[in-house]
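ok trying again, last paste got cut off:
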Amino acid sequence: TDGSLAPSVADRYQDRGVGGAMMAHVIAVARKLGRERIVLWDGVQARNERGVHFYTKWGFRKVGEFGTDILNYDMVLRLTP
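nice, full thing came through this time. structure:
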């Protein structure tokens, strides 16, 4: 029921709609495949404010935290009500 996502957009391609286009496509495919959730694989670094904002804008919610040498957030997008 779950799919995982580990996207990366090179700095020079950010702010050009690449991430948004990719996310819209991934969500549409996940729904078509009957997935209930998308899990952000390996989370997002807490200090990556742009990344946290991007995922939150798309509906991902923080569901946990974990540490490596820095703090990271586990985030999940629920596709079903």
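cool. The longest strand covers residues 71-78. The mean pLDDT is 94.
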